[in-house]
Amino acid sequence: MPYSVILVDDPAPGVRRITMNRPDKRNALFHPLRGEILEALREADEDETVHVSIVRGAGKAFSAGYDLGGGNEGLEMPFFTAGGDGQWPRHVTEGWMSIWDLAKPVIAQVHGYCLAGGSELASGCDLIYVAEDAQIGYPAVRFGVPDMHFHPWTIGMRKAMEAMLTGDSMSGLEAVRLGWANSAFPVDELDDRVVEVASRIAKLPPDIVQINKRVVHRQMEVMGMRTGIRVGTELCALGTRQKSMRTFIDEMQKGLTDALTKRDAPFGDYRTADKQPSAPVAD
User: Fold this and answer.
1) How much is the pLDDT for 120?
2) What are the two backbone dihedrals, phi and then psi, of residue 68, each rounded to the nearest 5 degrees?
3) 56: part of which helix (H) or strand (E)?
4) Alpha helices in 19-73 (DSSP H)
5) Cα–Cα 20 to 30 A to 198, which of 3, 13, 236, 264?
6) How far apart are CA 228 and CA 134, in angstroms?
7) What percent of the chain shows pLDDT beyond 70?
8) Dist CA 223 CA 255 (whole Å)
9) What is the DSSP letter of 222?
């Protein structure tokens, strides 16, 4: 099918690559982009010539998170999720966790910013390879509650607690050390190294690979990961009722960039850091 905000190519035999193509928005995840990512992954899952997929971002970042700049105005969600309190966190969590249910492995290739919703997308993938200097974080905890609580499962209780209480980011190298990512490479080597890994997987019999993918996921599900993430959406819904969240929403409606700058200024990071003076209006 024709796509408008992703690019699709096959960089090696058996390897499908999906590139989020909103570089001017740091690949902020608005409804059409989320829908096209999932549709392209399902299409690859049904294509017998494809054995493994890669998701990456064009431009300077993997994804700066969900689009908070009004990009969804007038657009429908890409798939149905029952309404009521918590519809949004249930919706995005259902989407990213649906990657687990695909038969074929999906690799997240992360560089630059990988924030909030971007980190949720990456966490839903089966493997994660990162640039050494990538910035992975959830700055949205500075005004609200995450949609998808993968942190304790992937980086452990203590670092998860630190991440939830500060919103600080971790580098690609630290993400590997903590277990969130598989390996880190210099950013100029990332494309080639990820295709190398994907090509190794593509050489294996796909019927066996899909069972072995489920082996790992079923163990995590038995330990409660999927249930924990689903239960966490109720806490996210509760977070939207808090005074701090409502205050931030009011400030955001007056000016999103100013609201986010005010949020991060005490920490001197993200959009307020000298090395990233024009960070995206997302997360």
Assistant:
1) 98
2) -100, 5
3) strand 52-57
4) 31-46
5) 3
6) 27
7) 96
8) 43
9) H
- Burial per residue of 200-220, b for 16 or more beta-carbon CB atoms within 10 angstroms, e otherwise: ebbeeebeebbeebeeeeeee
Chain-centre distance for alpha carbon 101: 17
| Residue 168 near residue 269, CB atoms below 8 Å | yes
Q: Which parts of the chain sit beneath pLDDT 70?
A: 1, 273-281
Half-sphere exposure of 149 toward its Cβ, with a 13 Å CA cutoff?
21
d(CA 213, CA 203) in angstroms, rounded, equals 15
Q: How far apart are CA 197 and CA 127, in angstroms?
A: 10
Whether pTM exceeds 0.90: yes
Q: Which amino acid is at 262?
A: K
Asked if 134 contacts 185 with a C-beta cutoff of 8 angstroms, the reply is no
Give the C-alpha separation, 12 to 140, whole Å. 37
What confidence tens digit (pLDDT) does each residue in 116-138 have? 999 999 999 999 999 999 999 99
Residue 71: phi and psi, rounded to 5, are -65, -20
Letter for the amino acid at 65? G
> Which contiguous run of DSSP H or E holds residue 57?
strand 52-57
Nearest to 111 by CA among 136, 85, 144: 136
Q: Which residues are registered as beta bridge partners of 67? A: 282
For position 230, what pLDDT does the model report? 93
Helix (H, G, I), strand (E, B) or coil at 269: coil
Distance CA 269, CA 282 (A): 14
Query: Are 58 and 20 contacting, i.e. CB atoms less than 8 angstroms apart?
Result: yes
Tokens found for residue 255: 């000016």
pLDDT tens-digit series, residues 65-84: 999 888 899 999 999 999 99
Residues 78, 35 contacting (CB under 8 angstroms) = yes
Pairing of strands 52-57, 106-110: parallel
